[in-house]
Specification:
Helices cover 41% and strands 19% of the residues. By secondary structure, it is of the alpha/beta class. It has 2 domains: 2-173 and 358-372, Rossmann fold (3-Layer(aba) Sandwich), CATH 3.40.50.2000; 184-355, Glycogen Phosphorylase B (Rossmann fold). Strands 3-4-2-1-5-6-7-8 form an 8-stranded mixed beta sheet, sandwiched between helices. A 6-stranded parallel beta sheet has the order 11-10-9-12-13-14, sandwiched between helices. A hairpin with a 2-residue loop joins strand 3 (46-49) and strand 4. The protein is globular, with a radius of gyration of 21 Å.
């Protein structure tokens, strides 16, 4: 079996894209070792997950990004410099593979998997020096990559313009989901049958419009009490979020669920909603994984009018796009919703789900790996 070292600079607890790629490669004849960090000591240093190996390495007791990164790079170089294929998730993991190829093993192959517009991500907002360094690193190292994957055509166009390369699009879509409509949120949270459930799922991060959602649904409580919002979120800030929704009758919070049942929960809602802010070039040009989660779960979408996401929603006829800066107009739109509103989107949702599911993305992934190795 051809061995692949899959590098990720986190503890690998909920990185769905990395899981899907590792699982797909392993099931198609590749021997995958996933190399991650080990900040959370309750996680095992080594384990087998769905037949692929996971190895976690200590890169410092305290999270100090430059220090942790350098230790991670040294660990990878020390332990894997003789390996032949490296799958680098995000810019953080590209340097050790680059150094291995340049110094230790000139025949090594590098697959650079850009999960977003790497150097324009929100983490670089108000950090011009770090952003400049990131751009220098990527510009000088991307030329050593044998394959570059991107998550949206708009980001791919930018990479082609800047670096003269054409990334291969690998959409961050879930596996095709087909089952009878689950009703897990109503069961778990006691939501009445007559309510229409809007879902926001994902990390609790800046720029994701959570404050706006709370304001919108606060207004809707008086104007259309049939609509409710469920937060299926994780990350810092949850305590404050729970306190804020404590007195709201139409907003619920659900704890994080296992990836094994995640799509069952997504499909238990009626609509997906994402009022993402245009706070960075990355936000404007990427297609977030939750967009595909909603579509594969059969949920029409209410999304912000930002370039990539709104273009996709409008061109495929899978929902409404709104100006996230105009909350009154969003309330005016949503207050007209009833049980029949989503019906016109159902045929398109079924069509798009088949075109963009992970099974279709997997064909691209395996084809490129077979050609590479």
């Amino acid at each position: 079996m051809k061995k692949v070292i899959n590098l990720v600079f986190n503890d690998f607890t909920h990185d769905i894209r990395v899981l899907k790629i590792s699982r797909s490669l392993q099931s198609h004849g590749y021997d995958v070792t996933l190399v991650a960090t080990h900040f959370e000591k309750s996680l095992p240093k080594e384990e087998i997950k769905e037949d692929f190996k996971i190895r976690r390495f200590n890169v410092g007791r305290i999270k100090i990004l430059p220090f942790n990164l350098i230790l991670f790079w040294l660990v990878v170089i020390k332990n894997f410099r003789k390996e032949k294929v490296f799958h680098c998730n995000d810019l953080y993991t590209l340097p050790p593979a680059y150094l291995i190829k340049k110094i230790f093993n000139k025949n090594a192959k590098i697959v650079y998997d850009c999960h977003e517009y790497e150097t324009e991500a929100a983490i670089y907002i108000r950090k011009p020096i770090i952003k400049k360094l990131a751009k220098i690193f990527e510009k000088n190292m991307i030329i050593a990559a044998d394959r570059v994957f991107g998550v949206s055509p708009w980001v791919a166009k930018e990479y082609q313009k800047i670096y003269g390369i054409k990334p291969i699009i690998l959409f961050n879509a879930p596996r095709f989901f087909s089952s009878k409509k689950p009703d897990l949120f109503r069961k778990d949270l006691g939501i009445p049958e007559d309510k229409i459930i809007f879902l926001f799922q994902g990390g609790f991060l800046d720029g994701r419009g959570i404050d706006d959602l709370l304001e919108v649904f606060s207004s809707l409580e008086r104007k259309n009490s049939q609509l409710v919002l469920v937060f299926l979120v994780y990350g810092k800030g949850l305590k404050i979020l729970k306190e804020r929704i404590g007195n709201m009758k139409n907003v619920y919070w659900h704890e994080k669920v296992s990836p094994l049942v995640f799509m069952e929960y997504v499909a238990s809602a009626d609509w997906g909603i994402y009022l993402m802010k245009n706070i960075s070039i990355n936000h404007n040009l990427t297609l977030p994984n939750k967009l595909f989660d909603y579509i594969l779960g059969g949920l029409p979408i209410v999304s912000s009018k930002i370039k990539a996401m709104s273009s996709f929603v409008e061109e495929n006829g899978v929902g409404y796009t709104v100006d996230s800066r105009d909350l009154k107009s969003i309330v005016s739109l949503l207050e007209t919703f009833d049980k029949r509103t989503k019906k016109k989107f159902v045929p398109n949702l079924k069509k798009v789900a088949k075109e963009y599911c992970w099974e279709e993305q997997e064909k691209v992934l395996i084809s490129e790996y077979n050609a590479l190795t």
